[in-house]
Amino acid sequence: MKAVRNHGFTLIEMLLVLAAITVLMAVSLPFFDRAAEQKTEWYILTQLRDDLLYAQQYAMTHQTRVTVTFAENRPEYWIAEMQGGKTILKRSISGTWKFQLTTLTMPLIFLENGNVNKAGSLLLKGKNTTYKIVFLLGKGRFYVQKM
To answer: Is RNA-binding there in the keyword field (predicted)?
Structure first.
């Protein structure tokens, strides 16, 4: 007599598939961790760039000088009007990031025409990476360079 099969999966077949999925996930987990770190770096740099462009635009549209102050060895910066001292924006960066001044002296000032008052650079240091932010004279240009 022939045994009748219900066309289902046995417990051993399901355990083998579950074991294979577990091994694949364990192998790929470190890659997801690094991808999350890269996404965080990208977010921090994009936010900093947008905030600096906002400070420049604020100075031009309100025809006032705007200061950008980076806290040395701490992960925060703030943007304020020079006259009156009104704080426009204060931002803290999460994680192990910190600013280190190199040739830039605080505060960085965006003039009424959008230019910075002096050239210089500073470092944004993370756990594994360092970025150099360079401010150029003329038209308020700046760029970020990975070190």
So the answer is: no
**pTM of the entire structure?**
0.76
Structure-derived torsion over alpha carbons of residues 102, 108, 114, 118, reported in degrees to the nearest 10: -50
Residue 67 identity (one-letter amino acid):
T
Q: Two tokens at 118?
A: 């002096």
Cα–Cα distance measured from residue 132 to residue 147, given in angstroms and rounded to the nearest whole number: 7
Of 93, 47, 85, nearest to 65 by C-alpha is 85
| Spatial contact of 47 and 91, defined as CB atoms under 8 Å apart | yes
Place of tokens 């099969």: 5
Smallest CA-to-CA distance from 108 within 80, 87, 83, 84 is with 80
Domains and CATH numbers, the chain: 34-146 (3.55.40.10)
What lies within 8 Å, CB to CB, of 63 at 6+ separation is 112
pLDDT in tens, 30-68: 777 777 788 888 888 899 999 999 999 999 999 999 999
N- to C-terminal Cα distance for the chain? 75
Q: How is residue 49 written in tokens?
A: 């760039």
